[in-house]
Amino acid sequence: MKKNTRTAFIRHMLENERSIEPSPEFSYKALIKSRQDYDGMYQRSIDDPETFWAQMAEEHIDWFKPWDAVEEYDFESENPYVRYFRGAELNVSYNCLDRHLDGPRRNKAALIWQGEPNEEVDVYTYQRLHREVCKAANMLKRLGVKKGDRVVLYLPMVPQLAISMLACARIGAIHCVVFSGLSAEALKDRIEDSGAKVVITSNYGYRSGKILHLKDICDKALDMCPQVKACIVVRRIEKRTDMKVDRDVWWDDQMAAESPHCDPENVEANEPLFILYTSGSTAKPKGILHGTGGYLLYATLTMKYVFDLKETDIYWCTADAGWITGHSYLVYGPLSNGATSLMFEGVPNYPKPDRYWDVVEKFGVNILYTAPTAVRSMMKDGEQWINDHDISTLRLLGSVGEPITSKAWLWYYSAIGQGRCPIADTWWQTETGGVMITTIPGAVDMKPGSAALPFFGISPRVIGSDGNDTKPNEGGSLVISRPWPGMMLGVYNNPEAFKNVYFPMPGFYLTGDGAFRDEDGYFWITGRIDDVMNVSGHRIGTAEVESALVSVLQVAEAAVVGYPHPVKGEGIYAYVTVKEGTVINDDLRAELCNHVRSNIGPIATPDVIHFASALPKTRSGKIMRRILRKIAAQDTENLCDISTLSEPSVVNDLIQETKRMS
Ligand code: WTA
């Protein structure tokens, strides 16, 4: 689409709020071709879930032993639980690798790896990946890792990350990937909570042209974790690396000695596959525990239908494997389906803002799955960065991680998709394991900004504070009223949290998101309604940042809220009061930011630090976050009721201070 036509199209769409039909050419070739087909399959999944999931499980997964029961759950009682395919046995790495080796997929690219330096590319066929995974599995066994043991992976986006995940799965060990942008302190917390005795890291990493000193960070964490017996180090860059005798070993050295054969372990369907830590409303992130059979089926099925997967597709999910999107849609979903998954180490704007288009053109990418924050940043950089590239191979676009505004949606659709590619906006969470609400491409009309309709087997509802369903277009809390196979099994080391956080209302899984449903039944997600921020698609708890801030000696109190940010979606706004006698200056501001970076990681660095004279509190001493959110958003026209405040003048002071700051 030419720029003028496109601008007119976006304006027209924004003014008329019309839905967009998928093109007939796309629908004709799609796996689900029409709304009628979607409705039929959805209805079947809801009317008789057990038969539906049993059939899907037989068709999509290879089992070593059949199940005794398909679905068992309790959402009502004091002890909520969920279980799929009890008694069945399988192996995830077998499903992702071995079963593809008998036919032509043996020589197909499973993983294409593009490093940040453009010349660094590697291709793993299914056979090669299988061999590497077997060797890595043997290496773990040799280091004493057994079924049920936890292994922490602190790696950048290198093939060894996917290989390590699959190697753990092969021997029934539980992997716990920690995003390589998190700090030593955060890594230590996760190693301790998971009880891992083996850690895999890399000596260095690249990010935006800079070198990350991952091994140094890992050493700092391991100094505090004497229980870790072995640290396997991937040699990402040929450069001096300190290795601790009796603990650290090189990946390459170990792998060279291992056999490329390793029998897959039989794993019961509800035994854990991985733990992934995610932020909630407490200061410490929770270890979300996912199982084996249900998770794999759900990742496999959503991958197939949400991305309308074809045998020859080159599929690119830009998410880091340190997050759930990378687990389900970079590694497990694509490989279980025998697809070609592109793994990319870089960032969208380095060395130049055309990096994504360069990669799409270089490999002929067909499906691109990325986050609204990336779309907004490309929108800001301008379309000249796209024009020099041939991106006509793209046939389908996906969005995940945060609400996408209709404006960003329409830009993505017209500038990147050229008005030709449907967009699957996918709403889901670490806890849900896979996509829950989405626009099934080719089948369902798209409404820019709406995640559309539930995936098969999913029963979302929007309820008001009285616990009843809201009317069309009326906002409420998004809940799910029955289980699905990808659902988390629990919170590691914290069974109480499973009930308290996710089942405060008997009968419903509470998502923590706000939403409304329009008159056509389409879901519109409005964002978190708990104390979780969404910064560039990353989940960060306000309590986590507050706890880091108050651990600085000079800080008396801290209150953190999200505020609208043009590129990040939400920015981090920290109100801080200091102890008497403290000098407020830029050094203190920098110290606070550094402290948060070293406590959590750079992604949690506050965008604004507002040194306040006091914080607004109720008479019982509770900080009024609702008001702080409005002040941070500079939306102070209508502050609602401040009569319950102990000192209402504090609010006015804060507003004046904000004006002086901006
Ligand atoms: C938000 C990422 C609107 C939401 C897969 C959710 C979204 C949180 C969307 C989970 C979307 C994710 N539209 N909001 N398409 N996708 N979210 O655990 O607030 O990192 O609760 O999982 O991201 O983030 P998480």
Automatic annotation (TrEMBL):
It catalyses: acetate + ATP + CoA = acetyl-CoA + AMP + diphosphate. The chain crosses the membrane at residues 151-173. CoA binds at residues 325, 349, 536, 597. It comes from Raoultibacter massiliensis. The keyword GTP-binding does not apply. Residues 38-96 form the Acetyl-coenzyme A synthetase N-terminal domain. This is Acetyl-coenzyme A synthetase. Its EC number is 6.2.1.1. Keywords: Acetylation, ATP-binding, Ligase, Magnesium, Membrane, Metal-binding, Nucleotide-binding, Transmembrane, Transmembrane helix. Residues 544-622 form the AMP-binding enzyme C-terminal domain. CDD domains: ACS. Acetylated. Deacetylation by the SIR2-homolog deacetylase activates the enzyme. Catalyzes the conversion of acetate into acetyl-CoA (AcCoA), an essential intermediate at the junction of anabolic and catabolic pathways. AcsA undergoes a two-step reaction. In the first half reaction, AcsA combines acetate with ATP to form acetyl-adenylate (AcAMP) intermediate. In the second half reaction, it can then transfer the acetyl group from AcAMP to the sulfhydryl group of CoA, forming the product AcCoA. Pfam families: ACAS_N (PF16177), AMP-binding (PF00501), AMP-binding_C (PF13193). The modification N6-acetyllysine is found at residue 622.
